[in-house]
Amino acid sequence: MLCRDADSCYWIGRYIERAEATARMIDVHYHFGLESPLIDKSTQWNSLLAISGSEEAYKDRYGAEEERNIIQFFVFDEKNPDSIRGCLKSTRENARTIREIISSEMWETLNRTWIDFQHWNMDQVMEVSPHEFFQWVKNASHLFQGITNRTLMMGESRDFLDSGRFLERADQSARLLDVKYHDILPRFTHVGETLGREETASSDPLGVGGPVDVHGWIAVLKSVGAYEGFRKTYHEVTPANVSDFLILSGQFPASVRHSVGRVDGCLRRVSGNSTTTPANDAERESGKLYNHLNFLTAREIIHSGLHEFLEDVQERCADVGNAIRRVYLKY
Q1: How confident is the model at residue 191 (pLDDT cuts 50, 70, 90)?
Q2: Displacement of CA 155 from its chain's centroid (Å)
Q3: Are the C-beta atoms of 238 and 246 separated by less than 8 Å?
Q4: Which residue has the higher pLDDT, 24 or 319?
Q5: Could you give the CA distance from residue 303 to residue 20 in angstroms, rounded to a whole number?
Q6: What is the 3-state secondary structure (H, E, C) of the chain?
Q7: For 263-291, what is each residue's pLDDT tens digit?
Q8: Percent residues over pLDDT 90 in the chain
Q9: Which of 178, 81, 68 is nearest to 123 (CA)?
């Protein structure tokens, strides 16, 4: 397979996943602010900018953090390559260059999504409700992924697309959990035996275990489509349980551990490596991260520092991506 074709497959996977993740985060944040009047608006929008790492770019062009400007920046801004518009455009352009490799149904779906996106504008999004628009983006992503699973041959093309998709998913889950951990637990200073909750329950609605705290963790779960799966696994919404589910679950498709495992499997199929020894730097980086996650517990993560752990995961996801590009995608 040509390096440039593998590169296009890899970035199709990353960009379509990024568009969906952005739509999920803005939708949940938007409604979280409406449902939680005790949450400061600047904190609500600050976290979105922090998750995307685009605080400076936003402030340079828009200044104040206002709802309409935030949505414009993340959805329609042509200068923001990570906006939904930028992601959908890049996905389509990459697919256009490899139409002979992907299935015709995949190309038609991406092309139709891009054409339909042109019919939306900021006034229309605010008029019909942002939720309807973001639901459309998520559905378009799910349609493409479903068609991909149904029509794309098993092989290198599929493995490179999936490696990009799941690496992006692992990074987004870790980034979201890291930022929201600090947003909704501003007074979190003590780790008791209950792992992440103060030993004495607080009556303060903004404190650990208070209504805003619990509602905030529910918003985190909904941001990655994990709420229903979480409730089937745990009976209580606590920082430890949420962290365990989103980081270490082997069954939830958007957990960090599951996503990194999928990346590692894709890379090993590409190289044909069936041994425990990594065949190249890409497998070495993905394997180290996956094995690290396999032997951890939520207790160990929280006692060692959840923020520090999640920052390390994001850095190691970047290392995996850099290694994939060095080994396979440079041309």
Answers
A1: very low
A2: 25
A3: no
A4: 319
A5: 32
A6: CCHHHHHHHHHHHHHHHHHHHHHHHHHHHHHHHHHCCCCCHHHHHHHHHHHHCCHHHHHHHCCCCCHHHHHHHHHCCCCCCCCHHHHHHHHHHHHHHCCCCCCHHHHHHHHHHHHHHCCCCHHHHHHHCHHHHHHHHHHHHHHHHHHHHHHCCCCHHHHHHHHHHHHHHHHHHHHHHHHHHHHHCCCCCCCCCCCCCCCCCCCCCCCCCCHHHHHHHHHHHHHCCCHHHHHHHCCCCCHHHHHHHHHHCCCCCCCHHHHHHHHHHHHHHHHCCCCCCCCCHHHHHHHHHHHHHHCCCHHHHHHHCHHHHHHHHHHHHHHHHHHHHHHHHCC
A7: 999 999 999 988 889 999 999 999 999 99
A8: 56
A9: 68
| Separation CA 249–CA 126 (nearest Å) | 36
Q: Tell me, what's the pLDDT at 38?
A: 52
Kindly give, in sequence order, each residue whose CB lies less than 8 Å from that of residue 275, ignoring residues fewer than 6 positions away.
none
